[in-house]
């Protein structure tokens, strides 16, 4: 299991959450953790669903960009932050 930088995580927008809040059904001591389920808390914007990323996922493209591709994984960056990992 990849180590999580707890210092970065606690400063992220999800810093107050527990592992299982995002990794539903996981046991923190098991390897690997279940994939995070962003859509359980966040509605996907229609423009994401109809973008190349959204349509690629709908067609089963394993390497299509995910939420974490732009927003990070354990050091989530707010969507309005100008220093995102990708351009808008």
Any descriptors?
mainly alpha; globular; single chain; 88 residues
What is the radius of gyration computed over CA atoms, rounded to a whole number of angstroms? 14 Å
The total strand number stands at 0
The span between the termini is 31 Å
* Helix run count: 5
Mean pLDDT: 80
Helix content: 25-40%
Structural class label: mainly alpha
Largest sheet: none
Poorly predicted ranges: none
Explain what you see.
The chain is mostly helical and 88 residues long. It has one domain. The protein contains five helices and no strands. The protein has helices spanning 6-11, 19-22, 46-49, 52-58, 67-71. The protein is globular, with a radius of gyration of 14 Å. The model has no long low-confidence stretch (mean pLDDT 80).
Write a short abstract of this structure.
The chain is mostly helical and 88 residues long. It has helices spanning 6-11, 19-22, 46-49, 52-58, 67-71.
């Amino acid at each position: 299991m990849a180590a999580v930088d707890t210092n970065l995580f606690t400063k992220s927008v999800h810093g107050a959450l527990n592992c299982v809040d995002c990794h539903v059904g996981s046991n923190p001591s098991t390897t690997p953790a279940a994939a995070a389920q962003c859509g359980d808390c966040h509605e996907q914007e229609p423009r994401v669903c109809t973008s190349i990323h959204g349509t690629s996922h709908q067609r089963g493209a394993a390497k299509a960009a995910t939420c974490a591709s732009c927003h990070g994984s354990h050091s989530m960056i707010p969507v309005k932050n100008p220093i995102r990992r990708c351009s808008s």
